[in-house]
Design a protein that fits this description.
Keywords: Membrane, Transmembrane, Transmembrane helix
Organism: Deinococcus roseus
Number of helices: 11
InterPro entries: Uncharacterised_pept_Zn_put
Protein name: Metallopeptidase
Number of strands: 6
Strand order of the largest sheet: 1-2-6-5
Order of helices and strands: EHHHHEEEEEHHHHHHH
Distance between the termini: 33 Å
Strand content: 5-15%
Number of domains: 2
Bound molecules: zinc ion
Membrane topology: Single-pass membrane protein
Largest sheet: 4 strands, mixed
Helix content: 40-55%
């Protein structure tokens, strides 16, 4: 995968190596500041901004290492693709931000740790990833290669696309969070399909950035994070009633639908 040709997005935050893991001031300290402000006639809004802006102020200089550059490239490449797709239907694609962290960080969806795995937060439209996950993917889950890692980011970008299209709100409103046929699983499978669609775009361009065998790294990665496989690994058996992301076979299937067709309209996992 010739990812360096994907360009460099400026929408990548590097929160790694921040003391305290980049967690914002706890509620206690914030509350004290707010009370002081109210007592002394300051503008509470200013204090709230200070509290909320805290993690930004702590932001360390980007390490500009390979993980950071890779993130810049994948965000740039997905921006280019989804920007075009949205434009064709008269919409505007608002670029998401990728936030790299180590250990833990504060997000618009609450505090996160590396244990929660990569995720997308619709409240601040940011994708959160501890790049150590990519090592786990290669070693623990057996999904090696740059496109396996690219699939992970592209899947989270897929959630951002859903957010932009209003699909995420509809699913959240349904409150249907678990089970092999739940709306939550369908949302995850659609994000896999969107990642596959983008893979197809990279593999079918005039001077392909991804070869067809590299595209298969995405399939392997999608299979490796199936609910059944993860549950079997951790407790020895799988219970479809508690699935949240879909089985390995489902994830492989929907990634492949996207990768084969290159058409996001084929990603209707809700049908
Ligand atoms: Zn997901």
């Amino acid at each position: 995968m010739d990812w360096k040709r994907l360009g460099k997005s400026g929408n990548v935050e590097d929160r790694r190596g921040i003391p305290g893991g980049g967690l914002a001031i706890g509620g206690g300290a914030g509350l004290i500041l707010l009370i002081i402000s109210l007592l002394f006639g300051g503008n509470p809004g200013d204090v709230l901004n200070q509290i909320n802006g805290n993690s930004n102020q702590q932001q360390s200089k980007p390490q500009n290492d390979e993980a950071f550059q890779f993130g810049q490239a994948i965000i740039s490449g997905t921006n280019e693709y989804w920007g075009k797709v949205f434009q064709k239907s008269g919409r505007t694609y608002h670029e998401p931000t990728l936030a790299l962290f180590s250990g833990g960080t504060s997000t618009g969806c609450g505090n996160a740790t590396s244990a929660s795995g990569p995720f997308y937060c619709p409240n601040d439209q940011k994708i959160y990833i501890d790049p150590s996950f990519f090592n786990d993917l290669a070693t623990r889950f057996g999904a090696k290669g740059d496109f396996a890692a690219a699939y992970v980011i592209a899947h989270e970008v897929g959630h951002h696309v859903q957010d932009e299209l209003g699909i995420m709100d509809q699913v959240q409103a349904s409150g249907d969070r678990q089970g092999a046929n739940s709306a939550s699983v369908k949302l995850e499978l659609q994000a896999d399909c969107f990642a596959g669609v983008w893979g197809n775009y990279l593999a079918t361009m005039k001077d392909p950035i991804v070869t067809s065998s590299e595209l298969n790294q995405g399939r392997t990665a999608a299979q490796s994070v199936g609910d059944d496989r993860l549950q079997e690994q951790s407790r020895g058996y799988a219970n479809p009633e508690t699935f949240t992301h879909g089985s390995s076979a489902q994830r492989d299937h929907w990634f492949s639908v996207g990768a084969k067709t290159g058409d996001a309209n084929q990603c209707n996992t809700f049908e």
